């Protein structure tokens, strides 16, 4: 018979758990408010009144938002930037990091030093803006992709992960006649799928939440991303809806607060839906490579 030792909870444990639960509940209140208001029937909506559940459920705000050209256009722009940007960032980051792992490559130390240098020193907003301008990328969605293609932190993390892979597999593949590109695609990439899934989530969230770069590089409202549109809707005092489409129609009877909250829900919903499918790979990718052996 085996006995499992259980830790006796102390007063400190009870106080600690109670505080953590209270902090968690307080953190959930804004999300509960956003969801509740977004689904509240405009006929019973009362401003600044908190409901855990709407008195009467309604999809009127969502139906209005999804019928406007501006929201659908911003959603399309954000999907384009996220999809193309994530694919390019994964391809560039992993190929670049793989090259940095090869000490025999000419200039490897210089490139690695340049990457580490950017962790300490940053060019700043103005040089980056001038660079995008000289590349003729202003008011282009490609400016949002190329300006965030990768970063030093991601490269160093991916490099550390790739260095933890067994080098014997690469040597065996080269003995069998594989080229460097063949080794990368047939050996390194399949073994790196947990890391690929992890950084796919990182880059996808980064591109989906693109706000500051979109604010300074894109001035045409037709090329706004979803986050810029939501900011204009939620914060700007002169905002009068999510688009001219539908003006004078349902917008006249829908409270602005329900439209704002519904737009926030729609902006964060895709990431919330994608994350559970990548959670297993995400946890594995974070831990793998932390211990080399």
Automatic annotation (TrEMBL):
PROSITE patterns, per the entry: ABC_TM1
Chief location category: membrane
Membrane topology: Multi-pass membrane protein
Keyword Transmembrane included in the entry's annotation: yes
Membrane-spanning intervals of the chain: 12-35, 79-100, 112-131, 143-162, 183-208, 259-278
Location relative to the cell: Cell membrane
Domain ABC transmembrane type-1: 75-277
PANTHER family found in the cross-reference section: ABC TRANSPORTER PERMEASE PROTEIN MG189-RELATED-RELATED (PTHR43744), POLYGALACTURONAN_RHAMNOGALACTURONAN TRANSPORT SYSTEM PERMEASE PROTEIN YTCP (PTHR43744:SF9)
Family of the protein in this entry: Belongs to the binding-protein-dependent transport system permease family.
Protein's recorded name: Carbohydrate ABC transporter permease
Species lineage: Bacteria, Bacillati, Bacillota, Bacilli, Bacillales
